[in-house]
């Protein structure tokens, strides 16, 4: 049996499409563009899927958001509810809250789509946060990707704003409490806070304009900005080429992986349906934001034990644990106990995140392009700073639920607050010290394995009766991966404090500070094994291949209990 190959352009379908495709190619240059980009190679690693989860969650948000837009009415006009949810029949509420109830109980499939929208928002923000942590800990933000880091930070900011504006739209008692907190933060701005609040809310809180304005921002302004930044993020990703973890055959000049078509496109398409299915399962199984439980918003009421969505918990915690602090200047009150932990905490956090790539580059003096990722253990100071930041974030997160924790565990609310005030400063320091020591210990372990091999679990007996355990060398691929994953630090330059005439040099103090920070940044870091050390290791492990047992390619030694680490 034989078969002949027919070029696509000679097939019946190809001949029909030749005219339109040729017409477009002559005017848009699609052939050259497609040939270059559709065969672009992307590396494969599980952590790279975090960005895809965020992307596909955003697609689910767009799909479900279009459906909800057709039914939701953002009016704050008063009405009397007469829908299917009997406990609220006859209750006065806003049209926005009534329409949210109608979507939940009277529109077929409305509750499922509404919950899918909410779960997708949670997953979207969570995936972006974890993705940015991966980028931070592996150093993927370094030159030439600083702008993409800032774009990612902008996406995270807009995602949080989209989430906050979205769960405020139903005008229920819980979301109204969140808007009340936001109003308090705005009014804490000295001199102009009250004017800004009146402008946004259309008068004294809650006014009659905030829901329609949040609605327009939620369905038009923020999604448009998100789409633009996502497009810019993806274009820069293609332009700079994807980062990859060190390994055999991987260098700073190439990318080892699979092409966009057909492999990566098929995998990404399948992954979209996985993300969609997980969100649909969560939405059909677990209730999220049950607005019918809270009732309509009333400025005179507050939901007991009210908690914001998880991504706003750190801001709530900062407000709760900050000590009372305010003063008056010329008849104007400056409520620093709201301004500093509210707007100040958000501003400081995002300013530090945005400035870090440039601060690190100034400290290290490293102006090289980086397309290979770092193992977190090989950048102990950076990793320790990241864990310290996560610790501070987690403590503020706990502070956002201090009342619920006190109630559920029978603890004193004030004691929890005082404890968090102390640990907010002490906890990150402890986390930094412990994390850096762990990273340095892991580096020492890698150095030992490279130079002395790994334990095989086989005991040799010498002629004089002594016992020793036989070691085996790592494979060449693993040795390459470990050594290339440990880039040499930038050379330290001694600062010039005085010139040839003994006069203080310009920026001498700045140079001295930079030198101190550089020594602190690289403190305790292990260098790569020297050529002499590797030659000694080769001599030491020369007879390792004379092993009585076939170790196999995947064998990586035994643990302290004698069990193979990979088996």
Automatic annotation (TrEMBL):
Keyword terms, alphabetized: Cell membrane, Electron transport, Heme, Iron, Membrane, Metal-binding, Respiratory chain, Translocase, Transmembrane, Transmembrane helix, Transport
Q: Where in the cell is it found?
A: Cell membrane
The record's EC number reads 7.1.1.8
Q: Where are the transmembrane segments?
A: 46-72, 119-137, 149-169, 215-239, 270-294, 334-359, 379-398, 418-435
InterPro entries this protein is in? Answer: Cyt_b/b6_C, Cyt_b/b6_N, Cytb/b6-like_sf, Di-haem_cyt_TM
Record's bilayer topology term: Multi-pass membrane protein
Catalysis performed (reactions): a quinol + 2 Fe(III)-[cytochrome c](out) = a quinone + 2 Fe(II)-[cytochrome c](out) + 2 H(+)(out)
One GO cellular component this record assigns the protein to is:
plasma membrane
Does this UniProt record's set of keywords contain Glycosyltransferase?
no
Family annotation (Pfam families):
Cytochrom_B_N_2 (PF13631)
Task: Give all residue intervals belonging to the Cytochrome b/b6 N-terminal region profile domain.
Answer: 20-246
Give the signal sequence positions: none
Name of the molecule in the record: Cytochrome bc1 complex cytochrome b subunit
From what organism does this protein derive?
Answer: Aeromicrobium piscarium
């Amino acid at each position: 049996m034989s078969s002949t190959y027919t070029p696509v352009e000679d097939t019946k379908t190809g001949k029909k499409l030749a005219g339109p495709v040729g017409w477009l190619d002559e005017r848009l240059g699609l052939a050259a563009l497609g040939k270059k980009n559709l065969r672009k190679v992307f590396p494969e690693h599980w952590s790279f899927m975090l960005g895809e989860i965020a992307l596909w969650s955003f697609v689910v948000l767009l799909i479900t958001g279009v459906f909800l837009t057709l039914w939701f009415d953002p009016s704050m006009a008063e009405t009397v509810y007469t829908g299917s949810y009997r406990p609220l029949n006859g209750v006065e509420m806003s049209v926005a809250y009534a329409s949210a109830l109608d979507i939940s109980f009277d529109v077929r499939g409305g509750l499922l789509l509404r919950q899918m929208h909410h779960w997708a928002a949670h997953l979207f923000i969570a995936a972006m946060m974890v993705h940015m942590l991966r980028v931070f800990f592996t150093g993927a933000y370094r030159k030439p990707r600083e702008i993409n880091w800032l774009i990612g930070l902008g996406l995270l900011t807009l995602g949080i704003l989209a989430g906050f504006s979205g769960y405020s739209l139903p005008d229920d008692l819980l979301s109204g409490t969140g808007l009340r907190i936001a109003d308090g933060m705005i009014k804490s701005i000295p001199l102009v806070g009250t004017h800004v609040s009146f402008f946004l809310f259309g008068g004294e809180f809650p006014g009659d304009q905030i829901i329609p304005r949040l609605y327009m921002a939620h369905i038009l302004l923020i999604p448009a900005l998100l789409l633009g930044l996502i497009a810019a993020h993806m274009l820069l990703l293609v332009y700079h080429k994807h980062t990859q973890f060190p390994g055999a055959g991987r260098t700073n000049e190439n990318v080892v992986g699979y092409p966009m078509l057909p492999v990566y496109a098929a995998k990404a398409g399948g992954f979209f349906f996985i993300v969609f299915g997980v969100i649909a399962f969560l939405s059909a199984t677990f209730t999220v934001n049950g607005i019918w439980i809270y009732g309509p918003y009333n400025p005179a009421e507050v939901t007991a034990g009210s908690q914001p969505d998880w991504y706003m918990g750190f801001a709530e915690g900062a407000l709760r644990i900050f000590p009372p602090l305010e003063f008056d200047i010329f008849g104007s009150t400056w409520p620093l106990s709201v301004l500093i932990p509210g707007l100040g905490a958000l501003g400081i956090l995002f300013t530090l995140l945005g400035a870090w790539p440039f601060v690190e580059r100034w400290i290290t003096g490293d102006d090289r392009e980086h397309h290979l990722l770092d193992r977190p253990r090989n950048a102990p100071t950076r990793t320790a700073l990241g864990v310290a930041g996560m610790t501070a974030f987690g403590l503020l997160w706990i502070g956002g639920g201090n009342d619920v924790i006190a109630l559920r565990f029978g603890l004193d609310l004030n004691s929890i607050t005082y404890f968090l005030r102390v640990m907010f400063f002490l906890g990150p320091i402890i986390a930094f010290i412990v994390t850096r020591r762990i990273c340095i210990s892991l580096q020492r372990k890698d150095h030992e394995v490279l130079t002395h091999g790994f334990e095989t679990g086989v005991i040799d007996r010498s002629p004089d009766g002594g016992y020793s355990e036989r070691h085996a060398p790592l494979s060449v691929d693993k040795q390459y991966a470990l050594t290339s994953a440990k880039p040499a630090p930038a050379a330290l330059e001694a600062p010039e404090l005085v010139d040839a005439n003994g006069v203080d040099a310009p920026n001498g103090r700045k140079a001295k500070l930079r030198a101190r920070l550089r020594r602190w940044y690289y403190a305790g870091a292990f260098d790569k094994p020297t050529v002499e050390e590797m030659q000694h290791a080769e001599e030491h492990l020369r007879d390792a291949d004379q092993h009585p047992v076939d170790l196999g390619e995947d064998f990586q030694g035994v643990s302290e209990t004698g069990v193979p680490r990979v088996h």
